[in-house]
Amino acid sequence: MIFTKKLISLALLSVATSKQYFLENFDDGFKRWTVSSEKEDYGNWEVSHGKFFADEKDSLGLKTTEDYRFYSISTKLDKTLDTAKNPLVLQFSVKHEQSIDCGGGYVKLLPPDFDPTKFNGDSAYAIMFGPDICGGNSRTHTILNYKNENKLIKKDIKAETDQLTHLYTFVLNPDKTFKVLIDNKEVRGGKILDEFDLLPPKFIKDPKAKKPTDWIDEELIDDPNSTKPEGYDDIPETIVDPDSTKPEDWDDEEDGEWEQPRIPNPDYAGPWKPAQIKNPDYKGPWIHPDIDNPDYKEDNTIGNYEIGYIGFDLWQVKSGSIFDDILITDSEAEAKEHAEKVVLPKIALELKAKEKFDEAEIKRAEAEEAASKLDEPESEVIDEEIAEDEIIDDDGHDEL
C-alpha cells in the first residue's frame, strides 16, 4: 500500500472549505527547513524511514541522529495563521524507534517575525505541543504562552512510550476551547481557562472577614449527665499472662527471679471519656466569604496568536526519533481525514513490519548464540590435547 503525495492531496482536497497552512511529509528531504546557528554542536538530522516501516518512501521522516545533543530546526508556514479568527489544528506523528529514555518529541509554533537562524530554547513561542519522555515520566506537553509566560496544562496528559509511530493532534478554537487527540482519539478537551492557569482567580477570600468570636462550630459536646463508672480507674491496662509458665531451664541464681509476662487487659477500655451529645448552640461550619478579586480582569485575547513558523527545539539523550506527516490547518475534519486515509493505515502496516523485524532480530540473536557455541567445543578439544601431551623439560626428558 503506497501513500503518495497524490493520495494525500486527494484526501485533503475533499474538505473543500478548509484552509491548509502547512503540510510536510519529508519525501523530498528537509531543504525548506533551517537549522539554527545558535549552537555549534547541535545534533544532525537525516531523512529516514527507520528500521521497520510501512513503505520505503512514504514512511520517510525527519530523524535525530546523535545521542546527547540539542536539536533546533524550523521552517516557515505557507501562510500566517491567526487563531483569533481561525481554528488551529496542529497534527504530526512521532516514532521513538530507539526506545527513548530521555528526550523531547514536541513542536513549537512561533510568530511571523521569528528568526530561524537564532532559534534556541529561550526563543519566545506561542504554543508547544507533543510528547516528552524522561525516565518513568511521560507527558504530552500542552503549553500556551500568555503575557510572555509559558503555561503548562494543569493536569498531565500521558504520552505513548513504545517504539511505534503515534499521531498527536492539538486543536485550538477562537471560542477558547481546545482538544488533544492521540492516534485520532480525544484524550483531553474543554475551555482553556478551566485547564490552564492563565488568569488570577475571579474570587478571593475576603481578607477583612474574620470568624466571630462567639461562633460555635463544635457540633458535639460532652454530655453533662455522663459519669464515670465506679471503679473504672481501677482497671489495669495490662494483666499477668495466665497461660505463662516458668521455663524448665530457668535458673534463678543466674537468670534472676522469674516474673510472669504481662499482656493487654481485655477489660481495659482506655482513659475514660464522657459520652458526646449534639451541641444545641451549634451554628455549623463558618464559611469564609469571597469577594471579587481586584486583580482579575477578563481578557478576550487569551489564545489569540499569529503563527508563522513551526520548529523542533529538543534535547535527546538517545537519538533516533522520527517525525512525519506534519499538518497545520483550520479544519478538524481535514485533520481527521488526513489521519484516517494517510497516517493511521501506515501505522497499522508499521505494526506488522515491527513484528517481522522483531522475529528477524530474535533469529539473528539465536544464530549468533549458536555460532558462538560452535566455537566452544574446538577450544575444549585443544585444551584436552594439550593436557594429554607429555610435558618435556629442557633436557628433553619427560617430567612425569
How would you describe the overall organization of this protein?
There is one protein chain. The chain has 400 residues and is an alpha+beta fold. The protein has a domain at 5-200 and 301-357: Jelly Rolls (Sandwich). Helix content is 18%, strand content 32%. The chain contains four helices and 22 strands. Strands 1, 3, 4, 6, 12, 13, 14 and 22 form an eight-stranded antiparallel β-sheet that branches. Strands 2, 5, 7, 8, 9, 10, 11 and 21 form an eight-stranded antiparallel β-sheet that branches. Strand 9 and strand 10 (137-146) form a beta hairpin. Helix 1 (5-13) packs antiparallel against helix 4. The protein is flat and about 95 Å long.
Q: In terms of per-residue confidence, which ranges show pLDDT below 50 for 5 or more consecutive residues?
A: 1-7, 390-400
Could you estimate the helical fraction of the residues in percent? 10-25%
Whole-number average pLDDT? 90
In percent terms, what proportion of residues is strand?
A: 25-35%
* Distance between the first and last residues' Cα: 76 Å
Encode the helix/strand succession as letters.
HEEEEEEEEEEEEEEHEEEHEEEEEH
Radius of gyration: 36 Å
- DSSP strand tally: 22
Specify the CATH class of the domain at 5-200 and 301-357. Answer: Mainly Beta
Broad shape: flat
**Major β-sheet, in short?**
8 strands, antiparallel
According to CATH, the fold-level topology of the domain at 5-200 and 301-357 is: Jelly Rolls
Question: What is the name of the CATH architecture of the domain at 5-200 and 301-357?
Answer: Sandwich
Secondary-structure-derived class: alpha+beta
Number of distinct helices = 4
